[in-house]
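The freezer alarm interrupted the setup, so I double-checked each line after restarting. Inputs confirmed:
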Amino acid sequence: MVASEIRLSANGIRKTPPGADGAAEGIVRSSRSNPGVCRRELLITTAMTLLFSATSARALVVKGSLPWGPSAGTPPTAVRPGPWAYFTPEEGAAVEALVDRLIPPDPETPGGKDAGCAVFIDRQLAGSYGSAEGLYMHGPFADGTPEQGDQSPLTPAARYRQALAALDKYCRATYGGKPFAQIPDDEKDKVLSALEKDQVQLEGTSGRAFFEYLLQNTREGFFADPVYGGNRDMVGWKMIGFPGARYDYRDWVERHNERYPLPPIGVAGRPE
Amino acid sequence: MRNLMTLALAACVIGLAAARAAEDNQAFAKIERGRYLAVLGDCTSCHTAPGGKPFAGGAALETPFGALFGPNITPDVATGIGAWTESDLWRAMHEGIGRDGIRLYPAMPYPAYTKVTREDVSAIWAYLRTLEPVRNEVQPNQLRFPFNVRRPTTSTWDLINFKPGVFQPDPAKSDLWNRGAYLVEGLGHCGTCHTPKNITGGDRGGEALRGALLQDWYAPDLTADPRMGIESWSTEDIVRYLKTGANSFDIASGPMAEAVENSTSHMTDADLLAIATYLKDRAPRSANTAIALAHDATRMVAGKAIYEDHCAACHISSGAGVPNLFPRLAQAPLVQSTDPTSLIRVVLIGSRAVATSAAPTAPAMPSFGWNLSDTEIADVLTYVRNTWGNAASAVQPADVTTLRGRVSR
Amino acid sequence: MMRKLPATDVVIVGLGWTGSILAHELTGAGLNVVAIERGPWRDTATDFPPAYAQDELRYRIRHDLFLRPEQLTMTFRNNASQTALPIRSWGSFMPPNGVGGGGVHWNAETWRFLPSDFELRTHLVGRYGEKFLPEDMTIQDWGITYDDLEPHYDKFEYLCGTSGKAGNIKGRIQAGGNPFEGARSREYPTPPQKQPYGPTLFAQAAQEMGYKPFPQPSGNLSQAYTNPLGVTIGPCTYCGFCEWFGCGNYSKASPQTTILPALIRRPNFEARTQCEVSKINLDRSGKRATGVTYVDTSGNEWEQPADLVLLCAFQLFNVHLLLHSGVGKPYDPRTGEGVIGRNYSYQVTSSVGAFFDDKIFNPFIASGSIGMCIDEFNGDNFDHGPHGFVGGGYMGAVQTNGRPIQTGRTPRATPRWGAEWKKAVAKSYLSSYETVTHGSCYSYRDVYLDLDPTYTDRFGRKLMRLTFDFHDNELKMSTYLTDRLAEVTQKMGPRQLEKHPRRGPYDVTVYQTTHTCGGAIMGVEPKTSALNRYLQSWEVPNLFVMGATAFPQNPGYNPTDTVGALAYWAADAIVNRYLKSPGSLVQI
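Predicted 3D structure, all chains:
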C-alpha cells in the first residue's frame, strides 16, 4: 500500500514538450512554465536519471506548483471472491472454523465465517501484511519483555502456516485424529481458551502469540471496510450501528441521543 | 578654444545622452507594453513548453486532426523568428500568413488576433525582440495526413471562417465596453474555446461565446444566459474570477486554470473591468428553457444517495460549496451546461484548480473513476444538474463510458 | 561515491510543520531554501481523498501514512539493566513520514502551555521547595517565557485558523474559555466546533461540580477560514477519521492546508522528497555545519552544502541525527554530563470507561479535537502540597472517533471473544463513553536516548536506543487525575464505570500518544542544554533544531501549538538577529 508516484502534467492537460525523449524518466518534476531549468536542477536530473529507473518510488523535486495528475491516488483494490490466495484447503477450513468460534453466528448477525473473516485473513496474508513488508526484520532476534513487543523472525504468513499445522497436529492427537475444523464446537472453544491462556503448547510456535494474532485479524476482518473481503454486506458495522465510510455528519453533531438513520457505506460504495 | 571645443562636445554628448534616454524611456515603455500585451494574448501557453525556456517553442496542442506545436518565437535566427521583420509578425497576426508565405493553422488564433491594432502588434514585436534567443528546433506541424499537407495561401477554410480586419469600436458603447470587446474578441481570443465550432473547426456564426467543447473540456457559455451563462455574476464577480481564479461561485480548472495563471491574473483591474462590462452585455441564447427532472425519478433518487455518500462532504448537501475551495453546484452555470463533458471528466479523473498569488490554495477534485460506475456517475450528475433550482438534460451512462475510454489512463 | 551539489543558503531536514514554517519565513527573507524530505510528497486529493481516506484498516491498523520501521526504527528498553531490542512494528507512538509530517495525521488539538510550564523548576522550587521534587528529576526552565512566545502562538493559531474560545484576553478572564490559560492577545480565529452528546454531558457534570469546562481548541475548523497567506481551509464535517488519517476535505490544519500552496510558489524554494538525510556535516573545527549528506531512493549519496542547517524532522530523528553526526556531547546517565539524548520525556495519558443503558453517543460523529475539557488539574493550577507529586493534565470528553476495529469497547469482565463478547460489543458501541486525561511527563536522570550497540539501519548506522519508564511521580499523578475524572464521569450517570489510570511499566506496543519529547533541549546554559533559547545549537551556531526535541520536559498538553510557536520564534530570531550577525545568539 505504499503510495506510488504521481505523474505530473500541468492542470491535467497532457502536454508533451517537443522532442521529449524520456530524458526526465526517473525524476518526476513539478514545473511551471516560467522559471526554466536551472543548472543545479539539471545536474540532479541527469545524475538521478541514470540511477532511478528500476525503483518504484522515486525521488521527486518539487518546485513552482503542487504536484497533481489525472486519476492521482492509490485507491484500494477490491478483494474478489474465489479460491484461497494463501491458505491450503486444510488451512482455510481451520481458519473458517476458528473465526466462527471467535465470532459465532447468532440470529441477528452472521459469524466470522459468513462475514468473510477467513477470506479477509487469507488475502491479507497473501499481501504485504503477510510478508511483514515495511517492518524491521533484521537480527539478531532475541526474546525480550512483553513491553518490548514481538521479536519473532517469522512473518505473519509464516506464523499462520506453522501454527495452523501445529494446531491440527495437536487436535488430531487429542481428538482421535480429527483436525480442529472437525471437532465439536464446545471442544473448539476449549482449545481456543487454552491457547489464549497459554495452556496449549503448539509444536515449534507459541500458541498464545498465534491466538493474539488470530483474534486481532478476525476482528479486523469483521469490522474493516468490505473492500478487503471481510465484513461482508457490512454485517459488522450494521451489528454495532457504525455508518462506515461516511464523511459528513455536520447535520448530526448536535442531534444528541438520537440514532443515526442512514445505512453504512464502504469506500467502494453501498452494499448491493 | 580647446576648452570651448570640449564644452561644445560635452554639450553635444549630454544632448545625445538625453535624447537617447528619452528614446530609451520610450522604447522601454513600448517593450513593457508589448510584454503586457503578450500576457493578454497568453502567448506563453502555446509557445513555452512545460519547464522550458520562455517562448522557445511550446507544448503539444492536441487537435482532432493531430498535434500542433507552438513554434519557437525567440529571436534565434536559425530556429526562432530572428530573421523576421515587424511586418512579418503583423502579417502572421493579422492575415494568418507566415514569413515563408505559408498559411498558418488556425491553432494560432489569427481569426481573433486579426483584430489587434498595428500599434499593439508593433509593441509585441518590440518585446519579442528583447527575449533571449534560444536555439530550439520545433517541428510545429505533426498533423496526420492529409491535414499535414502545406496549406495554400488562399484556403477554403479561411474563405469560410476568416475575415481579416482590425477591431472597430462601436461608437454607441462606452470606452470601457469597447476596450472589453477589443480584448475579448482580439488578444484575449476567448472565443477560441468558448464559441461553438462548425464542422471545419471555425466559429459558428452568430453564436459567439455560447459555450463549446474542446479537448474533452466544455468551455461554458459566457453570455448573460440566466441558467447556463453568467447572468447571476456581477462585474465584480467576473473580475474576481479572472484576477484570482476563484469567486464565490466557482474556481477555474482545466484549460481555464491555465488561462488565469498565464494571462488573466496578470491583467490590470481596468482591463478586467472592461472585459466584465463587455461580457455582461452579451445576449443570451434565445428560447433557452429547461425543466428540471422530477425529484422522484428513479435516476434522481439514486443520484441523491450517491451525492450524499460521496459529494456532500465537500460540496455540502445544499450544493452551496465553499468559496475558494469547493465550487458551488447549486444554480451554477457550468453544472447546467448543455454539454456535461467537463462534469463527467472531473468526476472520472479529478481536476486541480488554479493557484494565483491572491488565491494560492489550488484545491483539487479527487478522482471517483475507480469506485463509481458509469451509471452511478451519470445518476449523480443527473441529480446535481436537476436539483437546488438547477435544470438540465440527464447525463447518459453511455456518455460516461465514452469519455472514460478517452481520459482514463 | 558521494556527489557534491552546489551550495544553498539554507537546507531544511524534514518538511513537516516546522520545516514548512521555517521555509516560508526564510524564503520570505530572500534566502534560497532546499528542503529534504525522507518520505513522499503528499497532498489532499492525490493521497488521502475522501474517496478512500476513511479506511481504518489501511491507515489506523496497517499504518499506511507512517514511516516504515524497516527504513528506520529505534531500540527500546525500560531501564539500563535490560538489553534494548528493536521496535519492529510501531505501537506506543507513530513516527510520521512524508511531506506534512505529523501535521498530516495529528488530531489538531491546539493547546498553549501554561506560563509556569516554561519556568517550571524555578516555579516549583519557589512554591514547594527543592526537597519536594524527586531527587532524580531533571526538570529545567526553558530559557524563554510565555510572554516571549505569545506573539508566535498567535501567529501559528492564525495560520491554522484554530477554533476555540479564549479564556484570557490580555489578562481579562472570558466566560466560556479556559480561565487558567496564559493571557492571549486576541480571540481565536474561528469559534469552537459543535459538540456532540458526550462532551455536552461532561460539561454539564463538570459545571455542576464547580469546574469551568471549555471547548478544546481545535485545528479542525468550525467554519471555512482564509489565513494570512491567502490559503483557504474548509469546514470540518465531523467524519471521525482524523488522527492517524489525512483529512480528505481540507478542513484540518496541516502544512498542506495552510502553508505549502503558498510556499511552493516561491521561486527560491525547492523540496526534494524520498531523500533521507544521513548526516549533518561539520567542518574540521566541529563548530560549523557545512551542510548535510543525503541518500536518494537508489542509495546514491549526495552532499548538499548550506550556510544554515535546520533540523526539522520528528523529535526522535532529530536526536538520532545529532548523535550520529557527532554534534554536541552525548549524554551519560552515570555522570549526568553531556546534552544530546538528555531529558527525553513522553506523555502520561489515562481514561475512564463509562457504560450506559439509556444513551446513544454516536461515537463516529467526531473530529480529532472536539470535546469539552477542564484544566483545574493541569500544571500547577492546584496545590500539589498535600499530594506528594508534581505535574498534571487536562481532562475531558474528547470525541475523536468511533472506528470499530479500534473501539470495540466492552465492560471489564467481558470475555475477549465468543458469543458474549459479540453481544457486549453490539450493546456497548453506541451507548458507552470514554473520558480521558492528558498528563505531563517530567524528565529524569535515567531516562535518555543514545546509540544502540547492536542494531543498525539500512545504511549501517547505529539505531538510536530509547531507555524509558514511567516514574512514581507520574504514576501517582495519573492515579490522582483519573480519580478526579472518574468523579465527573460518574455524574454523567453511567450504569458502570471503569478507571484506567496509567500503570507501569511503560509498554512500547500499546498506543498512547506520539508526543515524544526532548533529547536536545533548549535552556539557559550549554552544560545542561543542547540549544539556546532560540533553538540554536550552543556548539554549532549555524545549526538550529526545531520541534518537541527542544522541550526540557513535557507539560500536560498536546505539543503542536508550542512546536509551531517555537518555529516562528526561531524563524524570527534567524531573520532579525542571526542574518544580521551570524554566530551564537546568546553569549555565555
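Quick read of the result. The mean pLDDT of chain B is 88.
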